[in-house]
Amino acid sequence: MATGQRRFVIVAIDYFTKWTEAESLATITASKCEEFFWKNVICRFGVPKILITDNGKQFDNSNFRSFCEGLSICLHFTSVAHPQSNGQTENMNRSILQGLKRKLDDAKGAWVDELPKALLPVEVGLPTVRVLQFSEAENEENLRGNLDLLDDVRAQALDRVISTKQRVVRFYNRRVRMRIFRVGDLALRKLGVSNPKAAVGKLSPNWEGPYKMSKVLRPGAYSLETLSGEAIPRTWNADNLRPYYQ
Questions:
Q1: Omega into 48 within 30° of 0, i.e. cis?
Q2: What are the Integrase catalytic domain coordinates in residue numbering (predicted)?
Q3: Strands (DSSP E) along 54-117, which ranges?
Q4: Which of 71, 93, 116, 148 has the highest CB neighbour count under 10 A?
Q5: pLDDT(200) > 60
C-alpha cells in the first residue's frame, strides 16, 4: 500500500511550456482538485484563461464549476471516451507511469515517494539520466543573452508548433473521411461509451438511439437530445456517433 493510502495522481500541464505539476491523493474529490489547482497552479503561475479536464465527477460538478467561474476560468471538458481531446495530458500520464515503473521495480507501494523523481526528467527535458558539467558564470551570461532573444524564440516556437500541427492535419485528412453532422441530424451512440454496463456479451447491440443533433460545438464535437427534446449531458465526439437513416 502506498504512503498514506494514496491511490490517485492528479496531473496538470501547460500546453505551451509543457511544464507539469503532479500530486498523489488518497481520494479524488472536487475539494482536493480545487486545493491542488489553487496551490500548484494559480498561486505559482497565475490564473489561466482556459482549463481542460476529463469528465470525472470531481471536475464536472457545481462546486468546481463555481470555483472556475469565480476566477473567470473557462472550463472545458473532453469528449466522452475520447482522450485525444486532451492529448498532451494523456501523453504526460504515460511518461510519468513509465518513469515510475523504471524507478520502482518490485517495490510498487513506494510510488508516492518516487513521483517527484519520475517528474524530474520530464521537467528538465532529459529523456535519459545524464550528467552535464555546470558553469555558473557561463550559465548567467547565457541567460542574460537569452533574454534579448526571448520574444523571437517564443514566436519561432509558436510558428513551428502551428506548422507541425498543420502538416499533421493535412496528412491525416488525406486518409480520413471526416464524419460531419448538422443540427437536426439523427445519430446513434456507441453503447459501450454511453452505457458500458448494458454492453455486456458478444450478442449485445453496439449502438443505441436514435438521438438528434441539438448543437455543433466545434468540428467533431456535438450536443445531443432525445427525439422528445430532452438534452443529453456531456459533449459527444463524432468517433462515438454514426448516422441514423430512417
A1: no
A2: 1-148
A3: 74-77
A4: 93
A5: no
